[in-house]
Amino acid sequence: MGRIVILAEKPSVGRDIARVLGCRERGDGCLYNETHLVTWAVGHLVTLQEPDELDERYKKWRAADLPILPESIPLKVIRSSSDQYRKVKALINAPETDSLICATDAGREGELIFRYIYTMAKCRKPFQRLWISSMTDEAIREGFRAIRPGGDYDALYESARCRSEADWLVGMNASRAFTLRYNTLLSVGRVQTPTLALLVRRRREIEDFKPEQYATLTANFGDYSGVWFSPKNEPDTHLKDKAAAEAIAAEVKGKTAHVASAETRRQRELPPQLYDLTSLQRDANRLLGFTADKTLKVAQSLYEQRKALTYPRTDSRYLPPDMIPRVAQTFQLLPESYQAFVPGTRKEDGKLRVTGRVVDASKVSDHHALLPTANRVNPAAFTEDERDLYDLVARRALAAFYPPCEYNATHIVTEAEGHTFRTTGRTVLVNGWRDVPPMERPRRQKKKPPEDGESETPLPALQVGDERTVKDTRVKEDTTKPPAPHTDASLLAAMETAGRESDDEEIVRQMKGSGIGTPATRAAIIERLIQVGYVTRRGRTLNATDKGVQMIAAMPEEITSAEMTGRWELALEKIAGKEQDADAFLAGIRRFSAFLVDYAREKSPDLVFPEDTARRGRGGRKAAGLAAKAVEGCACPVCRQGKVQETDRAFSCSRYREGCRFTLWKDGLTRGGGPALNTKLIQLLLRDGRVRGSTGVIAIGAEGITFTPNGQEMPAVTRPLTWEKSAAGKAAKPGDAARPKEDAPRPD
Fold first, then answer.
1. pTM for the complete prediction?
2. Residue 66, Cβ density class (10 Å: 0-12 exposed, 13-18 middle, ≥19 buried)
3. Which of the following is catalytic: 153, 182, 311, 390?
4. How far apart are the C-alpha atoms of 728 and 456, rounded to whole Å?
5. Looking at the structure, do residues 140 and 7 belong to the same domain, yes or no?
6. Residue 610: inside a domain, yes or no?
7. Is residue 407 among the annotated active site residues?
8. pLDDT tens column, 415-427
C-alpha cells in the first residue's frame, strides 16, 4: 500500500498536522510515518510569469506593445523558494505516493497555492481537501474525519485563478501604460487604486474645509442643567457667535424656567457581535494602536503558534448552530481570569444564551466568527501584544452571549424666556453585557467627556410644569472641525462599506459582504500604498501624498470607483458558486485592461508628478530632485520676483538657482501642534497674511511663519521664511536631502 502526501501551507502548520497523525520520522522537507507524509509550502511557491518571461520584447516598456493580453498566463516557480518547490514536487510525484491531501489554508488563496503547485508539478494523483478553522489537535482530527474530495473545490479554484489573472492583466497593463504616459513609476491595481481614492477624498475634504465659529449656551437649573437648542432644527445646539449666546444668557439668567416636556423610555442596548478579522483590526487600532497588518500577524501567531484563536482571516461574525456545544466547552476552558464572566453567558436552565446576532448558518461563509479555541492556554506565556489581542477576542466572545444592557433614557426640554434647553440622561437598570468590562489597560485610550446637557448621574424626577430658576449660565466658544484624517480603523471601515451608494441593488448586496478587498487582503493593501509612496503614516493617521493625489487625478473613474471592485467581487463569488463562467469573466477583464491603456494614451490629463523615482526599464533610478509644480497665484514673499513652487516636502521659490532661499517645510509647524502646510493654506496665507483654523491661527510676515494654538497668546512655533546656505554653499531647493536640524521632520 502506498503513502498519502499531505501538503500544508506553512512549516508550522505541517508540523502540527504531522504530530496529530503520528508522523515522527524526519525526511528532506517532510515528516512521515508508514501511511502518511506531511510536507509544506512557504506560502506561494508558484506564481504567474512576468510579461518579459512571456516574450523578450516586453523587457523594454513600450507603449506600442500595449495592451498585453495573452490567452493564458503560464506559471513559474518563485526563485526564492525554488528549493522547497523541488522537494514538494519530488514527494507528490514519487511512485510510492498514492494520493494527496490539500491542507493549505481553508480559503480562496489557500486553494490557489495548492492548485498552482499541483499544476506546475504536472501531478496527476487524486487529492482530497482538509478544511479546518482551528489548529487545535481535536479540530485537526475533526477535519480529517470530515475530509472531502478535492473536486468539490474546483469552483473555488476557478474563482481564485480568475482573481489572480485579472489582477495581473489590469495591474501589468495599467501600470505600464500610466508609467509611460507620465514618465513616473506608477502602480495601479483593482483594489489598491479605489482604496487610495478613499484617502485622497478625505484629504480633499480636509483641505477644502472652511472652519466656522459658533457658540453653545448651557443653563444651570440647580439640580440639573440643559443646553440651548433650536426647536426648529433639533438637535442643533450651535449659535452663530459668542455675542448671540451671551445675549440669550443675559435674558434667561435669574429668570424662572419651566419643564415643557419630560419623557423617560426603557431601552435596550444589544450585546456586540462576535469579531471577524476587519472588526478586530478596527478595535485593535482604536484601543491598542495596532496597524491592520500588525493585528493580522499577531492573530495569525495566536492561531498557528499558540493554538489560542480560531482561523483569523474570516469575514463572518456568526456561528453555525452545531458550534454551540463547542463554544460552551471553550468557555469552560478559558483562563481563570475570565471564569467569573462565564455564568452570565447562560440562561436559567444552564444553556448558553443563543440569539440570531450570534448564530445564523446562512451568514457563515468559509469560516465562522473569530473565537478563542477549546484549548487550555496560559496568557502569561504570550507576548504582550498576543496577550492584549487574545483579551479583546475572549471578552468579545463572552459579551456576545450576555443579555442586553437595559436602561431608562430621559429627555427633558426646559423653557425660559421663550428659549429651549435640552437635557438627556441615562440610568442603567440591568448591566447585561456591560458586566463584561473592557480590557483593563487599553493603550493611549482617552475617556470621552460627557457633552453639555448630558448627565451621567440620575436626573431628578420632573413633571411637565415643574419650575426652576436659572441660577447660572455658561457660554462656550468653539470652531467647527474638519473631518479627521483616516486611521487604519476608519479606513478599514470605509473599505468595508465602500460602494453601498451604488444604484445597482445587486452591487449593494455584494458590497455588504466584501466592500473593497477582503478581510485577508485589506491590511496588505494599506501597507502596499505606503510602500509605493501614495500614502504616509504619521502616528495613527494615514494621509494621501501629493503623488497619491495626482495618481487618482490621472485615473479614469472606472478604476477609482469602489463599485468596480464590487462588480469584480460579485463575479468571483458567482464563479465560486458555479453561477458564472470563468472564461467570460476574464474576457471582460481583457476588454477593461485595453480600455485603461487607451485612456492613458488618449484621455489622461496633463499632470506633473512630485515623484522621486523616474522610470528606467523595469526598475528605477533616483532623480536628482523632486519634480516641482507652481502654486497658482503666489509670488515669492522674499524676493518678490519668483513664483512659489511645491514639492512633496516643501514650498520654495522658483528662483532658487538665482539665490532666493525662501523655503517653508510642510511639516515645519507640526511639532508645535500646528497643521501640515498644503497648497490651499499657502495661497490663503500669502493673500491674507493670517488664517484661523480649527486648532489655532497661522500667520506669515517678515519675521517668519507662526502657529498660535486657540486659547493662547504666544506662538507655539515660529519658522523663518528663508534657509541659509549650507557649509558647502548649496542653496535650499526642493528635493535636497539636507535640511536645518530644527526643521527635521518628527519620527512617526
1. 0.78
2. buried
3. 311
4. 64
5. yes
6. no
7. no
8. 999 999 999 999 9
